């Protein structure tokens, strides 16, 4: 189906559900809150400490909805934490491979690695930002990276973001936090199929740096944070890296305090380190302290948002554009993307009596069959919706038979695009009868329409569209004055087809040949007329008048016209008939 036609279908649909669809479009969907487990089981207690990733326990499905598995092709290799629908936090050492984008997938809603859970979602990755100060040599400073997904996770009971700490929020030494992952169950031990977690106390920084000195890993003013028990027994282990260390903040929300980075062995404990050979020594779990890299994280995520943000004024206030011609770019630079949750309105106003021609040059609005997520809506006379557009092909030019057009751009809370660019100009209404051939003509007045060059032969491969809007309580009468088009049995070569507005499915009449077809009456106050020709044979074409008939006492929408001319009768017209 040609693009223009496809888009046409969309907006005829739009008219039908605008009454309730409109309010849905305008309301802003909010991100769910962070840090909540949909089925938080039992309140936290010290009893949890008794359950033993090393020394931990298997979790219940969905109990860490922010936990993701980074996969090399199908295989888990590191953990990560969802912080927004598009962003995952992980460890830099997990994503050092130069070719990682070729194979990296991120799975959310994962529980048992050997099964596909109902809510499981796997997305490829758009980009990875490693902290520029990441140093792969231990103590592995700045072991943190941001993974931007290609697409967004759909949040639900088993997929949800963890909170990022507030700038002034700290989790003091002694605070018991939880780390989780699909890492080994003991040093050099087995990899589990299901997600495990373990509770660990945060160590104070001085203590942490003292322990790491016994491993000849001096740290100062670094991004490290230690958690664990001096005599070991509980820890993260190989395969847990990149995953979260989560602490519950005051009101209970699970907050990302650290990212699993490394350890000397797993769960060894460190109390007798100095009495041991170097390679027998142990360490706490070493995590990247989120507080130390928080501003970097916000900076990166916000910079990405800013990149998307418009420099064009966009507000719920009406930006008015006057004059005989002009242009509208949204956002101002095609290098920028529009933001989420936008509602922008512009009114184009040309001198009275003139009509407006819209020409789109670039168009990139989140595609959807019904343009239900992001869309550009075009309204004209009496605030009638005359078009609803999305996707990445510019709509064909639109000629609006009125001197003002209102454009409304809406975006939801996900995905984004580069917006649109268009020019508009005032055109004289005299040029109108064949206007539907160079553009989609939207007409609000009775008048005449005709094929291009009429009465000279029309072009091959013509695609002419007219949409007629009559005032309420009116129906539209199309009366042919002359008619000369290529003839064949089912009018599949060249034809004039008249549709009622909804979805272009309801054909009212289709005509071809050389006899003047009988008049056609619309079902409602909208009518769509399409003239098309194939690649051979052209004739003089057609000319028809459009008139409006008032339906006294009836709402035009309810009015059901019983055609005076039974359908089949004027489907085909031939010279002989
Ligand atoms: N760096 C390792 C990984 O890639 C392990 C991280 C945690 N080790 C530990 N003992 N706390 O999974």
From TrEMBL:
What are the record's GO terms for cellular component? transport vesicle
Q: Does the keyword DNA repair apply?
A: no
Q: Tell me the PROSITE patterns matching this sequence.
A: CUB, TRYPSIN_DOM, TRYPSIN_HIS, TRYPSIN_SER
Supply the InterPro entries for this chain.
Answer: CUB_dom (IPR000859), Peptidase_S1_PA (IPR009003), Peptidase_S1_PA_chymotrypsin (IPR043504), Peptidase_S1A (IPR001314), Sperma_CUB_dom_sf (IPR035914), Trypsin_dom (IPR001254), TRYPSIN_HIS (IPR018114), TRYPSIN_SER (IPR033116)
Q: Which UniProt keywords apply?
A: Cytoplasmic vesicle, Disulfide bond, Hydrolase, Protease, Serine protease, Signal
Q: Which domain of life is it from?
A: Eukaryota
GO BP annotations listed: fertilization; proteolysis
> Where's the CUB domain?
314-427, 437-549
Disulfide-bond pairs as recorded: 437-464
UniProt domain Peptidase S1: residue ranges: 53-302
Instruction: Say if the entry is tagged with keyword Kinase.
Output: no
Would you indicate the residue range of the signal peptide? Answer: 1-21
- GO molecular function annotations of the record: serine-type endopeptidase activity
Compartment annotation: Cytoplasmic vesicle, Secretory vesicle
Gene3D superfamilies found in the cross-reference section: Spermadhesin, CUB domain (2.60.120.290), Trypsin-like serine proteases (2.40.10.10)
Tell me the PANTHER family matching this sequence.
Answer: ACROSIN-RELATED, HYALIN
Protein name from the UniProt record: Ovochymase 2
């Amino acid at each position: 189906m040609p693009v223009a036609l496809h888009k046409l279908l969309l907006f005829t649909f739009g008219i039908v559900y605008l009454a309730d669809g409109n309010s849905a479009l305008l309301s802003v969907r909010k991100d769910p809150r962070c840090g909540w487990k949909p089925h938080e089981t039992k309140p936290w207690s010290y009893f949890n400490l008794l359950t033993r990733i090393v020394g931990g326990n298997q979790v219940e499905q969905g109990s860490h909805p922010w936990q993701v598995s980074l996969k090399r092709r199908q295989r888990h290799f590191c953990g990560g934490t969802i912080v927004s629908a598009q962003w995952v936090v992980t460890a830099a050492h997990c994503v050092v491979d130069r070719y990682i984008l070729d194979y990296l997938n991120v799975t959310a809603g994962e529980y048992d690695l050997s099964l596909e859970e109902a809510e499981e979602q796997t997305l490829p990755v758009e980009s990875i930002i490693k902290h520029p100060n990441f140093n792969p040599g231990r103590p592995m400073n700045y072991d943190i990276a941001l993974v931007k997904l290609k697409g967004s996770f759909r949040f639900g009971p088993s997929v949800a973001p963890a909170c990022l700490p507030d700038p002034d929020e700290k989790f003091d030494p002694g605070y018991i936090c939880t780390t989780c992952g699909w890492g080994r169950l003991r040093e050099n031990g087995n990899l589990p199929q299901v997600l495990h977690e373990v509770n660990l106390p945060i160590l104070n920084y001085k203590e942490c740096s003292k322990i790491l000195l016994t491993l000849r890993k001096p740290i100062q003013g670094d991004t490290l944070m230690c958690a664990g028990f001096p005599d070991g027994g509980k820890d993260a282990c190989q395969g847990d890296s990149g995953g979260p260390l989560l602490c519950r903040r005051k009101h209970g929300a699970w907050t990302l305090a650290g990212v699993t980075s490394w350890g000397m062995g797993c769960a060894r404990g460190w109390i007798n380190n100095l009495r041991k050979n170097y390679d027998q020594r142990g360490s706490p779990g070493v995590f990247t302290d989120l507080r130390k890299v928080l501003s970097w994280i916000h900076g990166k995520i916000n910079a990405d948002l800013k990149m998307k943000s418009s420099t064009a004024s966009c507000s719920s206030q009406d930006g008015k554009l006057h004059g005989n011609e002009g242009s509208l770019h949204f956002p101002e630079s095609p290098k920028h993307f529009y933001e989420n949750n936008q509602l922008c309105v512009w009114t184009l106003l040309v001198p009275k009596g003139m009509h407006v021609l819209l020409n789109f040059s670039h168009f990139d609005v989140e595609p959807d069959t019904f343009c239900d997520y992001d869309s550009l809506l075009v309204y004209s006379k009496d605030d009638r919706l005359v078009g609803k557009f999305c996707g990445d092909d510019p709509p064909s030019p639109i000629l609006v038979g009125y001197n003002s057009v209102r454009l409304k751009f809406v975006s939801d809370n996900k995905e984004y695009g580069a917006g649109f660019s268009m020019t508009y100009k005032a055109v004289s209404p005299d040029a109108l009868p064949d206007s539907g051939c160079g553009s989609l003509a939207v007409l609000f007045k009775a008048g005449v329409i005709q094929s291009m060059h009429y009465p000279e032969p029309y072009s091959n491969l013509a695609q002419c569209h007219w949409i007629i809007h009559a005032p309420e309580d009116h129906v539209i009468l199309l009366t042919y004055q002359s008619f000369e088009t290529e003839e064949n049995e089912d009018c599949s070569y060249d034809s004039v087809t008249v549709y009622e507005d909804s979805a272009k499915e309801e054909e009212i009449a289709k005509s071809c040949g050389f006899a003047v077809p009988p008049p056609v009456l619309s079902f409602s106050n909208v009518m769509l007329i399409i003239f098309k020709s194939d690649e051979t044979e052209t004739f003089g074409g057609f000319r028809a008048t459009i008139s409006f008939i008032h339906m006294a006492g009836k709402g035009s929408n309810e009015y059901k016209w019983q055609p005076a001319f039974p359908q089949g009768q004027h489907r085909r017209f031939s010279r002989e008939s």
